[in-house]
Amino acid sequence: MYQQMIFVNLPVNDLDASKKFFTELGYTINPQFSDEKAASVVISDTIVAMLLTKPFYATFTDKEIADAAKTSEVLVALSAESREKVDELVDKALAAGATPSGRTQDHGFMYGRAFDDLDGHTWEVIWMDPAAVQG
Prior knowledge:
Layout: E1 6-12, H1 15-24, E2 28-30, E3 38-42, E4 47-53, H2 54-57, E5 75-79, H3 83-95, E6 99-100, E7 105-106, E8 110-116, E9 122-128, H4 130-134
Parallel strand pairs: 1-4, 5-9
Antiparallel strand pairs: 2-3, 3-4, 6-8, 7-8, 8-9
């Protein structure tokens, strides 16, 4: 059965630093789709973050590239299997050089925290109680 995938393409200032950051979070780099201009970060079987140097990213768009440290261009949200896994991933990101973003959201059935990566892209990590989703 076909599984649709998502490829999030993000411009980065320092490809090597960004690769190091994401591997410190526990993700892997797929060398088949990585070179000196891009890195393919495997987040799951169906989610890949493509980190592109800004000159390479510019070849895919005629628009000005947003400075994610100053403007919000996207909020990337990742699910986590538990509240503890939310904290684990965000804490790893902060230890690897990310900055906290927003406030912790705790609604009982839903819990989330966010961080800005080295280039200012915002990543939200959320957990939802499966019983709340089904009900």
